[in-house]
Amino acid sequence: MKVTRFSPVAVTFSGGTLRAVQLERRRLGWAVREALALRPEPDVDGDAGDRAVRRLAEVWARRRFVGTDVVFALPNADLIRSLLEVDADKDDPLLAAAVETERVHGLSPGTYELTAWRPEQASGGRRSAVMVVGAAHDATRRWAERFSDVGLTATHVECRASAAASLLGLDGSDERGQVVLDIGHGSTELAVVRDGTVIYQRALPGLGIASPVAALADDGLDAELARHAIETAGLIGDAGANGLPYAPQVRRVLAAFVKDLVREAEPALDYAARLYAPQLIDTLTVLADGAAVPGLEGELAQRLSLEPLPVRCAQVQGLPGQAGYAVALGLCLSGSGGAGAFNLLPLDVIEQRETSRTVRFGLAGAASYAAALAVVGGVYIGVNRPQFAQAASTRIADAQAEHAGLMRQLEQVRQETQDAEHRLEATRVLSERPDWSTLLHVVAQSTGETVVLDDLRVSMVGESMGRSAKVLVRGAAEDPWSLSTFVLSLERIGLFDRVNILRSQRAPRSAVTVTEFELECLIGVAEEVSGG
Description:
The chain is of the alpha/beta class. The protein has helices at residues 48-60, 93-105, 137-149, 160-168, 210-218, 223-233, 239-242, 247-275, 296-303, 326-334, 347-350, 369-372, 389-431, 436-445, 480-493; strands spanning 9-14, 17-26, 29-38, 69-74, 80-87, 112-117, 127-136, 153-159, 177-183, 187-194, 197-205, 281-288, 307-308, 316-317, 380-382, 451-460, 469-477, 498-509, 512-523. It has a six-stranded mixed sheet with strand order 8-4-1-2-3-14, with helices on both faces. Strands 11-10-9-12-13 form a five-stranded mixed sheet. Helix 4 (160-168) crosses helix 10 (326-334) and helix 5 (210-218) packs antiparallel against helix 8 (247-275). The radius of gyration is 36 Å and the shape is elongated. The termini are far apart.
């Protein structure tokens, strides 16, 4: 079996920050080949996501990324989410959850992708808790097109919580339920994960790092300085030790932020604990922008009566601040089709690209659900019809070859058209409104380094002014061969109907012997006029 040396490039975008990571397989495991974080300024009245992808493309060539395949974690704002309690005695409670989600959110078959998890630790009895997450095709297609517009290929789209769960399941804490607070710029996403599975997820809107940044701005700090202060001082240390006069302000606004976050998170965790045994939820991990704030994870864990469990992925070496990149690392390790991964890309997009090894199923309507949906590994259901990588790769290769052939033909036609336009323009200038300076320049450019012009005269022929002319050219060439080459160059220009050699003889000039000549170049003149 061929071992892939490089992972695809994992890209995440949350709250205006884009992160990209690529891993390289080495003898002792995975190591980070390249990682970057960008905070591009949004365009005026523009799309921040579009700007972020274009900024990534601008720096791509200057970094050490290999390939152009991208796996992407869809922003939480673009997700469809439901936590449902369904009849555990039904043949397929996951199917019932998918049908109910479609009804609640008013979804039309064929316009979205869904995945559902049913953990083994769901509450007993006749009811079973099912977590459903998905995305409308419009959202995933929009991101795929953004990458395509800059020459990158989004092969796999997942949700942030699932990608983080895939990574956290590698640290040996599979048997412990982990609360994950994905703290972004404008909001926080709370998820409970176990065994690489998302068993509960809830959005906490308005509770992101932007909240304390705005509070510090009210105290006179601009946004960039406020964010730097938060990531430098945090909730630990004192003003004297840190040498930061604004540390007390930072701790004050962060304390208020923690209070608001805990107030929203506690009811969500109480509900999750009723669905699953409370002892299964006992650790806390903070990701994304919140992970960069010193002391924030410990303070939240204490207030929520959980044990802090920072991200320490032993499988990946060489990336400081792994918590900020946890979602991207999870995508690198499993987002391209590994265990527990799924793909939210629309089916028609997947058909044009290499598919992952995971079998996916498509929703065609409520009547066909029972035959179309399946539980894969007891962890999730995906809603795309089965695809086969070999067939998809063959179609892609054929399309690329056809496209390359058409581009070559187009370039040839373009060049021929351009040459014809140049000849037509030159003829028009000479015939309709003669510009003899243009003609003289063209003749002079044809001399090369072995011909010197002494005289060049233009005379009109006949009564149709500007439509017939003779150009008399006198000069000296290094030898007869150089003269012949010059005459051929004038004929190839295409401006003259005929070029005649009126005189050619060897003669001394400046201590060397040259070939003196006199040429007659005819434009729009009948052949019998030549030499007259």
